[in-house]
Design goal:
Strand content: 15-25%
Number of domains: 3
CATH architecture of the largest domain: Alpha-Beta Barrel
CATH topology of the largest domain: TIM Barrel
CATH class of the largest domain: Alpha Beta
Helix content: 25-40%
Radius of gyration: 27 Å
CATH superfamily of the largest domain: Dihydropteroate synthase-like
Oligomer: single chain
Mean pLDDT: 93
Shape: globular
Structural class: alpha/beta
Low-confidence stretches: none
Number of strands: 17
Length: about 450
């Protein structure tokens, strides 16, 4: 059972030194109990006290790290079932499936397609982070190892889907430095696979014919001292996979059953059985409930754009608005002489407005200032998008030194700011744009 604040306080140094950022040791202890800060923030806790509390104060779901260097990802570490309760911690990662049973031409085509999905959305890079390399015994170990080498060339985290310990050793010999996931521990081979995973320092994926078998195998691996594990959702059916993902997450967080508290792998490519539309639907479902790694047959832009957008929404702290960085966004090849428009930094507003500006084909400078990540009317009502804040940002960012054009379009919903802006920004012509972004195309073309 997790320690309460009073339990942690009893082990604290009771110095009230404030070096941790809290006013008292009791306040600090309460924050640690809530998971708001790490016990390491206090430099005076003894190692014995830390050791006694580390397990009890850890998140109900263990954090497992896979990959290395810039491709290292944290999985798990969750503390809530629903994002509105607090926030999710480690976002779902997506993998494209390869198999040694595939023809060379198919493999090359899939390997070439993986790097094509790579773009930025609200400051986050969206791309295929992982490659699942499955071993087909009939194709032989040598072909599998060659496929692993090819996949490793993409500089993605590899997931080795192999249940043969000897083949696993051979595959890891060519990629262990990149810290792949060895996915193939079963009730029949878990001891041998555990030895291979521990020797190479990689996370081990656990499988079972049903939830009871999966739980027992995880418990047996824990007895061997291995807690660097991932659990595989049952692929017998969609219903079974969903049940595994939900039951294990609920048992870990609600019942504090640490044996269930490991990140999960969901193979939606196998569940969808070649149906691309079903695969896309399942990837969305298991992004929300509760796949740490979702394996798909293919990920092109048709799959990535809605899926990654949804993931970004789900794994954003609900208490913090999604914002874009303040600055000058040059659209359609705009330069210092192009017309200026301004709006708030709320991500949805930015993407809607910038999309319509691009569609117009008119070169323009979209100037974004800090409005607290709120919509136009909300930020105006809160005083965060006002004539004062706009004029102040233009001065601080030296907009006049960067742009020669002195025409500024403001959102039609805050037309009331026109007179105030003209008074506070002499030399600028303030133009009231339409109330709706969809009307910007005609508006800009008519201005030309």
């Amino acid at each position: 059972m997790a320690l309460k604040g009073l339990d942690i306080f009893k082990l604290s140094p009771k110095k009230n030194c404030k070096e941790c950022g809290s006013p008292t040791c009791m306040a600090f202890s309460m924050k640690v109990a809530q998971g708001a800060v790490s016990i390491d923030a206090c430099p005076y806790f003894s190692e014995e006290a830390k050791a006694a509390m580390s397990e009890a104060t850890a998140p109900p779901m263990k954090t497992v790290k896979v990959g290395a260097g810039e491709n290292e990802y944290a999985l798990g570490g969750e503390t809530v079932l629903f994002r509105h309760e607090k926030t999710y911690v480690s976002k779902t990662r997506y993998a494209v499936a390869l198999c040694s049973c595939m023809d060379d031409a198919v493999v090359e085509e899939k390997l070439a397609a993986i790097p094509k999905v790579d773009y930025d959305r609200i400051g986050e890079r969206m791309f295929v982070e992982m490659v699942y390399v499955n071993y087909a015994p009939e194709s032989g170990a040598d072909k599998y190892v060659e496929l692993v080498k090819k996949a490793a060339g993409l500089n993605r985290v590899l997931i080795l889907g192999v249940e043969d310990p000897e083949v696993a050793k051979a595959a890891l010999a060519v990629c262990k430095d990149s810290k792949p996931v060895l996915n193939g521990a079963t009730p029949a081979n878990y001891e041998a696979m555990n030895a291979v995973a521990v020797e190479n320092g990689v996370a081990l994926g656990v499988m079972g014919a049903n939830d009871d078998e999966l739980f027992d195998t995880v418990a047996a691996l824990e007895k061997l001292g291995n807690k660097n594990l991932l659990i595989n959702a049952n692929t017998a059916s969609i219903k079974a996979a969903y049940a595994t993902a939900v039951r294990f997450r609920r048992a870990a967080i609600k019942d504090n059953n640490r044996t269930c508290g490991y990140p999960s792998i969901v193979n939606v490519a196998k569940l969808a059985m070649g149906d691309a539309h079903m695969q896309a639907a399942l990837a969305s479902v298991f992004t929300m409930k509760y796949g740490s790694i979702v394996v798909m047959e293919n990920i092109g832009y048709a799959e990535a754009l809605p899926l990654y957008g949804m993931r970004q929404n789900v794994f954003t702290d609900p208490q913090k608005p999604m914002k874009v960085e303040p600055g000058i966004y040059q659209i359609n090849g705009a330069d210092e002489n192009s017309i200026c428009l301004t709006t708030v930094d709320f991500a949805l507003t930015y993407f809607v407005v910038s999309g319509e500006l691009e569609r117009s084909g008119v070169p323009c400078n979209l100037i974004i200032n800090d409005a607290g990540g709120l919509s136009v009317l909300t930020s105006w009502a809160a005083g965060k998008f006002s004539s004062s804040s706009i004029a102040k940002y233009f001065q601080e960012a030296d907009i006049e030194g960067k742009i020669k054009c002195r025409k500024l379009c403001i959102p039609g919903k805050v037309a009331v700011l026109k007179g105030e802006l003209e008074a506070k920004m002499p030399g600028w012509e303030i133009i009231v744009a339409p109330r709706e972004a969809v009307q910007l195309v005609k508006f800009l073309k008519d201005m030309q």
